Amino acid sequence: MKNCSAPLFFFIQPEELKYNAFVKTKHPGWEYLETATKISEDPLGIRAYVNQLTLAQFILYIAASVTLLFRKSAVLSQSLFKTNHKRLVMLRSTTIHFLIILAVFEGTKLYYGMGSDIGGYLIATYISFMIFSTSYQGMNRSDFFIYTQSFLDFPGKIDDAIFFSLI
Predict the structure, then answer these.
(1) CA distance 155 to 28
(2) Residues 49, 139: Cα–Cα separation, whole Å
(3) CA 30, 36, 41: angle at the middle one, nearest 5?
(4) Taking the complete model, does pTM exceed 0.70, yes or no?
(5) Cβ contact 123:105 at 8 Å
(6) Over the stretch 87-134, which tens digit does the pLDDT of each residue have?
(7) How far lies 79's CA from each of 31, 98, 110, in Å?
(8) Residue 121 in contact with residue 129, Cβ under 8 Å?
(9) CA dihedral for 28, 33, 36, 39, sign (positive or negative)
């Protein structure tokens, strides 16, 4: 029993196959139903290679990032690790984060096997941490906390008599 990778091909499959897909992911100890499919679940034949294709995509993306990083540092005539150029620092940090994601993905696939999803969970946790830290940095760099005036404050000074006459 295989899970369908393309949603369209999954939706046109018989209900028994959908039940088997649910059982495989949520209750692997349960019995599967007998089913026959008229249309292939994997018409492109790439489902067995999804992990390898993902790894290849990571490697190509990181190679492109490193190439861009070296080109930018050469244009600016600055070292990658001793720079104060904002864009170069951002590119360097992004490349380091992608290298960490690649290491987590590759390490978990090598240790737990290609069929394991633990790498995906660890990567999702790491990306959640990256989103949190980016939000925190954005809030710290914001001008919102510099000014003490709130949007709820009235503009200028209002006389109490005028204020209470409005109520």
Answers:
(1) 64
(2) 41
(3) 85
(4) no
(5) yes
(6) 788 888 888 888 888 888 888 888 887 777 787 788 889 889 988 988
(7) 60, 20, 34
(8) no
(9) negative
